Automatic annotation (TrEMBL):
Top-level taxon of origin: Bacteria
Keywords: Membrane, Transmembrane, Transmembrane helix
Name of the protein: Lasso peptide biosynthesis B2 protein
UniProt KW RNA-binding keyword: no
Transmembrane segments: 49-68
Source organism of this protein record: Streptomyces endocoffeicus
Domain Microcin J25-processing protein McjB C-terminal: 10-103
InterPro entries hit by this protein: McjB-like, McjB_C
């Protein structure tokens, strides 16, 4: 059995990039939530895997939780704009969806909130 190792992994450049990413994330979390959601979506475009509504909304909720703020993670269906589709989004309690279309013209049905 191997002993626990505290050896750092990754090259110096990778560690520097990770530190810069963390610093940028902490700065973005100080901005209003709509900017945080927008930044998560923009960054998701660079990810080679799937980064759709579920991943970006969960990322925003977890980012808010790291700062001790609260966003509600919602799963349900979106009716406008057509077609009807499954959707995930983040809501600011008492203010509606964050970073989505206009709250007045956005018809949705929430099936689960976390």
């Amino acid at each position: 059995m191997e002993a626990y190792s505290t050896v750092r992994t990754g090259t110096r450049r990778e560690r520097a990039a990770a530190a810069a990413g963390l610093a940028l994330a902490l700065v973005l979390l100080r901005l209003p939530f709509r900017h945080t959601v927008r930044a998560v979506r923009h960054t998701a475009r660079l990810w080679p895997g799937r980064a759709a509504c579920m991943e970006t909304s969960l990322g925003a909720v977890l980012a808010a939780a790291l700062l001790g703020r609260r966003l509600t993670w919602c799963l349900g269906a979106r009716f406008a704009p057509p077609p009807v589709e499954y959707h995930a989004w983040a809501e600011l309690p008492g203010h509606g969806p964050v970073g989505e279309y206009t709250a007045d013209g956005w018809h949705r049905h929430t099936a689960l909130t976390v």
